[in-house]
Automatic annotation (TrEMBL):
Keywords: Metal-binding. Residues 4-122 form the VOC domain. InterPro entries: Glyas_Bleomycin-R_OHBP_Dase, Glyas_Fos-R_dOase_dom, MMCE/EMCE_epimerase, VOC_core. The keyword Metal-binding applies. Gene3D superfamilies: 2,3-Dihydroxybiphenyl 1,2-Dioxygenase, domain 1. The keyword tRNA processing does not apply. It comes from the Bacteria. This is VOC family protein. Pfam families: Glyoxalase.
Length: 124
């Protein structure tokens, strides 16, 4: 049986920097890279396609939609405070403070290209 992944494409301006960010800080592993044009990294069922300026995925993006958006990948963690401490110690900067709601707690960080990543700890 083939392992299935849900795929998300992020447009990045520096593929090697994005690969290092996701593999070093967020537990992704590299499936494939194509130099500075493209990389395919995975974490569990999430396949994250990192497309640099030379990739077909980036070139297909309309100019008025080229900036990072409000969409984000959502990574569930078991101890949000420990993840914040670990990432802060590694020099990762967060975008705002922890927000709590009825479902749990979350915080946002950005990859080197400005794409958002949400770390979420479920409540209860």
């Amino acid at each position: 049986m083939t392992e299935e992944h849900a795929s998300v494409r992020y447009i990045v301006d520096d593929v090697p920097a994005a690969v290092e960010f996701y593999t070093t800080h967020l537990g992704f592993t590299v499936r494939m890279t194509a130099g500075t044009a493209f990389a395919d990294v995975v974490r569990g069922p999430l396949r994250l396609l990192l497309s640099g300026p030379a990739s077909s995925g980036a070139r297909a993006t309309p100019a008025d939609a080229a900036a990072p958006g409000r969409n984000r990948i959502h990574l569930v963690v078991t101890d949000l405070d420990a993840e914040i401490a670990r990432l802060t110690g590694a020099g990762v900067r967060f975008r705002g403070e922890v927000v709590a709601g009825p479902g749990g707690r979350q915080i946002l960080l950005a990859d080197p290209a400005g794409n958002l990543v949400e770390l979420f700890q479920p409540g209860g």
